Amino acid sequence: xxxxxxxxxxxxxxxxxxxxxxxxxxxxxxxxxxxxxxxxxxxxxxxxxxxxxxxxxxxxxxxxxxxxxxxxxxxxxxxxxxxxxxxxxxxxxxxxxxxxxxxxxxxxxxxxxxxxxxxxxxxxxxxxxxxxxxxxxxxxxxxxxxxxxxxxxxxxxxxxxxxxxxxxxxxx
Length: 172
What we know:
Elements: H1 11-22, E1 26-30, H2 36-42, E2 54-56, H3 60-65, H4 70-76, H5 81-95, E3 99-105, E4 121-128, E5 133-140, H6 147-171
Parallel strand pairs: 1-2, 1-3
Antiparallel strand pairs: 3-4, 4-5
């Protein structure tokens, strides 16, 4: 499991500025976060230059409609890093964006429609369309705090990781 680092409130603005300077875009396919990441990105000035499309796909049906391979969900479950990677790749392709971010998991509640996978575990993938690289993360959320607080921790974690990826890429 990955421990969440301290969040810098300027990170979203840094992320958007970095993407603008690089002339790159991002799209998200979110499940358990319900669009919280896309919402956070759109809080930054200039967001319309970097995020043109995002989707909230709470159900398996809509993940599949957005391009997630039904066989991946069947084989690994909807709550898996493999599904998160499918989400990231397919949203990037659908939106013709440079990066795609996929998020799936369970926060504070079992899923009666999908009785497999750990509760309070979230799977995150960041996909780079230019290099076809996938960055995979599994994050444990806290059962003793609210869903909203957990969503914010997930979003903060992703923004920090995405900034690190962009910084590494700039060095290469």
